[in-house]
Amino acid sequence: MGTFLYSIFLSLYIAGLKILSPWNAKAGLWVSGRKKFPGITFPRDNNIKTVWMHCASLGEFEQGRPVLELLKKQNPSLRVVLTFFSPSGYEVQKNYTGADAVFYLPIDSKANADKMISIIQPSLVLWVKYEYWFFYLQAFKQHNIPVLLVSGIFRNRQPFFKWYGGMWKKILPSFTHFFVQDEASKELLTKAGFAKNVTVSGDTRFDRVIEIAAQFTQVPMIQSFCGENKVIVAGSTWEEDEAELIHYVKANPQIKFILAPHEIDADNLEDVQKQFSGAVLYSQLKDAPGVTTNVLIIDNVGMLSRLYFYADITYVGGGFGGDGVHNVLEAAVFGKPVIYGPEFEKFIEAIELTNCGGGISINSALELEAELNKLWENKTLLETTGKAAKTYVYSNAGASKKIADFIQANRLLIS
After folding, report:
1. pLDDT (tens digit per residue) in 363-413
2. Using an 8 Å Cβ cutoff, are 281 and 305 in contact?
3. Which letter, b or e, does each residue of 1-33 get, where b requires 16 or more Cβ atoms within 10 Å of its Cβ?
4. Domain count, the chain
5. How far apart are the first and last CA of the chain?
6. How do strand 295-297 and strand 280-281 relate by DSSP bridges?
7. Do β-strands 338-340 and 313-316 pair in parallel, antiparallel, or remain unpaired?
8. Are residues 242 and 325 in the same domain?
9. Torsion over CA of 357, 331, 406 and 67, rounded to 10 degrees?
10. Structural domain that includes position 370
């Protein structure tokens, strides 16, 4: 795809979102968030270095966050600018105290890229996992700004490695160094001519979930809801996941179930409540003393990573949809068995979690019931599965330090 067609595609994309915005909340936030160009100004000071980290959404922010915070710890005067493409990232982290400025990334164009560079004056850019915006990355290279890819992952089907990927191949030289999750990604980049600037560092999400677990604080209402009961926490669920869970939930009123749907708009929450009759929303829990329901639905963002602590067994959603399973590491770090649907082949951590015995993939509600019964009936199996999950997470720590060490060794934030 040439730059002309690429620009047309972006124009059509924006037009489509504007049309959708009156009826779609996310589209509305995306459009309204970009009505004004970021109105920030920074005084020019050669003694202050600026890191600009861009993330597609909330998941990528959690991936880049441990690197950013480690750099800030090493360089307290460091100026941090954080940008997001998606409302699901920006709306949750727009008040993130670790950044000097947080805003939406203006749509990709040469003019916007040059203007953003002029405003931010970045000493270093961290690009998390993906979102290869052509004009921005080209501008970084033209301005001789070092760019590091954090926790990247590459697959053979991507246009970078295809005969028709001419424009995309021009993007790769914009990166000063690639920090990738696996050897397969390194091999693809090596064949493409980048053997000297690629490192298999692993996934920085391991560091992030370990940090979350270390900073865990109790959620009193959740603790009270669970009591002394067996508990299953199902996180980031979609309609397909809930369909697999519903029979087991109804058949086991003695087990407490905490559901955290991926989408928490009013319509979806209403639908979930209808499926799980008698379920109460977390926001209603304080007004429902002595609640007798065995199903609690989480209607907020940001609590899920702590909820897994309360589980005996966890279920992570997304594995029955086309995009695949969500973050299994948030559950595994607490040493709990992790169950998910069959669509996980694109996610190394889910594959490896399955292989080490800490994760369990199911294909149907019947398989889910069978696996849960096995774990309930065999305490040793329950404990060893959870231990395998936790061991897997802690044995993969350290990616953030590798990246920070590279930045320090190459003096990327030193005058």
Report:
1. 999 999 999 999 999 999 999 999 999 999 999 999 999 999 999 999 999
2. no
3. eeeeebbeebeeeeeebeeebeeeebbbbbbeb
4. 2
5. 39
6. parallel
7. parallel
8. yes
9. 180
10. 219-394
* pTM for this predicted structure: 0.91
pLDDT band of residue 26 (cuts 50, 70, 90) is confident
Whether residue 403 sits in one domain with residue 346:
no
**Scanning the structure block, which residue is given the tokens 């995309």?**
168
- The predicted-structure confidence for 342-370, as pLDDT tens digits, reads as follows 999 989 999 999 999 999 999 999 999 99
Question: What's the pLDDT tens digit per position in 76-88?
Answer: 999 999 999 999 8
**CATH number of the domain enclosing 173:** 3.40.50.11720
Kindly report the three-state secondary structure assignment for every residue of the chain: CCHHHHHHHHHHHHHHHHHHCCCCHHHHHHHHCCCCCCCCCCCCCCCCCEEEEEECCHHHHHHHHHHHHHHHHHCCCCEEEEEECCHHHHHHHCCCCCCCEEEECCCCCHHHHHHHHHHHCCCEEEEECCCCCHHHHHHHHHCCCCEEEEEECCCCCCHHHCCCCHHHHCCHHHCCEEEECCHHHHHHHHHCCCHHHEEECCCCHHHHHHHHHHCCCCCHHHHHHHCCCCEEEEEEECHHHHHHHHHHHHHCCCCEEEEEECCCCHHHHHHHHHHCCCCEEHHHHCCCCCCCCCEEECCCCCCHHHHHHHCCEEEECCCCCCCCCCCCHHHHCCCCCEEECCCCCCCHHHHHHHHHCCEEECCCHHHHHHHHHHHHHCHHHHHHHHHHHHHHHHCCCCHHHHHHHHHHHCCCCCC
Q: Please give the pLDDT value at position 353.
A: 97
Is 33 within a domain?
no
Does residue 385 share a domain with residue 251? Answer: yes
Q: Do 127 and 56 contact (CB within 8 A), yes or no?
A: no
The 3-class secondary structure across 4-56, one letter per residue, is HHHHHHHHHHHHHHHHHCCCCHHHHHHHHCCCCCCCCCCCCCCCCCEEEEEEC
